[in-house]
Fold:
Amino acid sequence: MKRSTGLKKWIMLIASFAILFSMAPPSTGQASELDKVNQQLKQLQTEMRQAENKQQEAKSTKAEATKLLGKTQKDMDYLLSEIDKKANEMANVAHQIDETELNLAESADELQKVNKRIDEREDLLDTRVRLMYTNGVVSYIDVLFSATSFSDFLDRFDSLQSIAEQDKEILAEHKRDKQLVVQKKQEIETNLKQVKLLYAKLDNAKKDLMLKEKEKEVMIASYNKQIDESDDASEEQDRLLIEFAKKRAELLRKKNELMKPKEKPKPKKPRSNSNSSNSAYAGGKFAVPLHDDYYISSRFGSRTDPITGKQGAFHSGLDMATPGGTDIYAAESGTVLIAEWWSGYGNCVVIDHGNGVWSLYGHIRNGGIKVSKGDQVSRGDKIAEVGATGRATGNHLHFEVRVDGERVDPEPYLK
Structure:
């Protein structure tokens, strides 16, 4: 009985050795190649982080420039409204200047007439003085006592009184006219100086506003340039990140191959037409990545940006609106290139289907990615869940198809 037990132990030990030998570690050449792959993966990861940082810097620069652009545009609108106000005020003041100059001209004409009346009165008074000088001074008493009758006395008294009052009125009018004309002329000249001064101030204010407008135009042009450059930089980094992700997936596949234990070669099976995860995309329709109810909220191409409101913004995919948490399925078999946060896409999965064709699934909810980089997936496998991460205004799946890195309309690829 003991001999039988010992024999069994020896058999089990021999079997263990056989398993160990069949799972022998990689050869020296394989180990060297594996180290090389690991080094390449490490270097690639560093380059990817650098590209991600540059892309984030570009996004931050764009966000800041967009914010400043909006503020400067508001300032510009305010300046333009103020310039319009100043222009209207200047037009009103110019009209006042015209009216004041017209009043001044009328006042000058009136002054000329008054001066003429004054001259006439002065001539009358001068004539009377000359007559009195030539004929001698005739007293009022002599005139009165020369009356031939009481009635003549009264007439002479009334005449003398009328002459005295007329002389007194002439002198009073003479004085009033001079004062009135001089005062009116001074008022109009003062008013003209004031409105001309106001016009000059308004003109200076308008020029200052126009100078500020030019400064704002330069700032707006600068911010637009920053935004365009940031977009270009972000696009370039996005392209690099996709290329890095593709290289990383290839290196991971190579690493997995090197890590596999050596097996005896198996006879090749005839190639089937099935859609296995290892087969390259050979054309045809993709499966719709959502099975539950959804509706198309935005198509590929030009549209109004839902966040900035900018007209003519380019939309690179197909937005499929559906509740958060809805399952997302692989549209076709392939290798997972990306399964992580990806810039404006938020949490994102990208699958390489071979022959340069990729599919992208964006705005996945936090914790909703169900695959990892380098995984092989089959058509219809669940890969994620719908969310609203990244640059999104609500729960939906952003679905893209890229051919050789270029975004194309995904609708023709779907059933």
Notes: The longest strand covers residues 334-341. Residues 125 and 397 are 107 Å apart (CA to CA).
